[in-house]
Write a structure and sequence with these properties.
Distance between the termini: 23 Å
Number of helices: 4
Order of helices and strands: HHHH
Number of domains: 1
Oligomer: single chain
Helix content: over 70%
Number of strands: 0
Strand content: under 5%
């Protein structure tokens, strides 16, 4: 069943990217804003199916089976130590602007995905009791 989630994310990302150009034109975006929007959307189209799916779909399945505490602790820690901290550093120190936020999110998703995949394959989450 998790495979269908991966497929849905991939299809939605490709569809969104396909219509983004015309939508930005219809919305009347300035050329520089349109260029940045399409650049960032290109990155999310590539990275989201690879990193977001294992970092969100997998823990949703484990939470539904009763493994709530582990996934909430990991999600909170990676959000604060990777997404927020790295994004702040990349924006303020490196000067990456909005792309720094995306890189922080990608790092968060990547580490979460690794941790949740290890947890999922270990089968420790199966033994949780749902009351």
């Amino acid at each position: 069943m998790i495979g269908w989630g991966y497929i849905a994310i991939l299809v939605s990302c490709l569809f969104t990217y396909a219509i983004a150009g015309p939508v930005t034109i219809l919305a009347g975006m300035a050329p520089e804003s349109r260029k940045l929007c399409l650049y960032m959307l290109g990155w999310i189209t590539i990275v989201k199916p690879l990193l977001w799916s294992p970092s969100f779909i997998t823990p949703y399945a484990m939470r539904a089976a009763g493994d709530v505490k582990f996934s909430m602790i990991i999600a909170t820690l990676t959000m604060w130590f990777l997404r927020v901290t790295l994004a702040t550093f990349l924006i303020r120190v490196v000067g990456l602007g909005a792309m720094g936020v995306w890189i922080g999110m990608f790092a968060d998703w990547g580490v979460r995905g690794i941790i949740f995949t290890i947890r999922f394959r270990s089968n420790k989450w199966i033994h949780k009791v749902v009351s």
